[in-house]
Amino acid sequence: MHGGxxxxxxxxxxxxxxGGYCLLRTRAGTPxxxxxxxxxxxxxFGMAAMAVPAAVLSPPDWAWAVYAVxxxxxxxxxxxxxxxxxxxxxxxxxxxxxxxxxxxxxPAVTGNGGGGHAGHGAGAGAGGIPLLTGALLxxxxxxxxxxAGRLLPGTVAVPAGGAAPASRALGGFGGASDGLxxxxxxxxxxxGLGMFAMLLTL
Length: 202
Hints:
The chain is built from six helices and no strands. It is mainly α. It has one domain.
């Protein structure tokens, strides 16, 4: 990646931890919540694999085709739920973005023979479509800002002579029941930042 091996390691670690947390979420919740957690775990681990520095592991040329097929299937799976709106639309965009990045990096791989992660490096610009890359960067920039905004403490109006609700005590965050939601949002924020960083390398 443009930021060097350290940036790649940090991005890989963040995405792997996010994917691991999402995998834990698949063990509880409603069927829809577990399905969402599985999709996010796949995204986190896929991004972590793509972020491994080339000096450590250069995947074979066919690995990018595997990424494209895997996330293409994930996009098809998310298509029907995405038509109903909600977070599944974001999963569809994310899966399609992964297919796009895999396809954009594949020509760079065959062109320089330096291994899959060379697509994240100095020769990455050969495969990307600037307009599409820019549109995805704008999307993820707004997504990250929106996720960060949901993590900020809210302002709660306190009735005259009353006390603030207990769930908004301690800095404005919710109680134990809201903790999972905030951690999930933080996980999604991390993966959004990771996707933004990876798109920048195109």
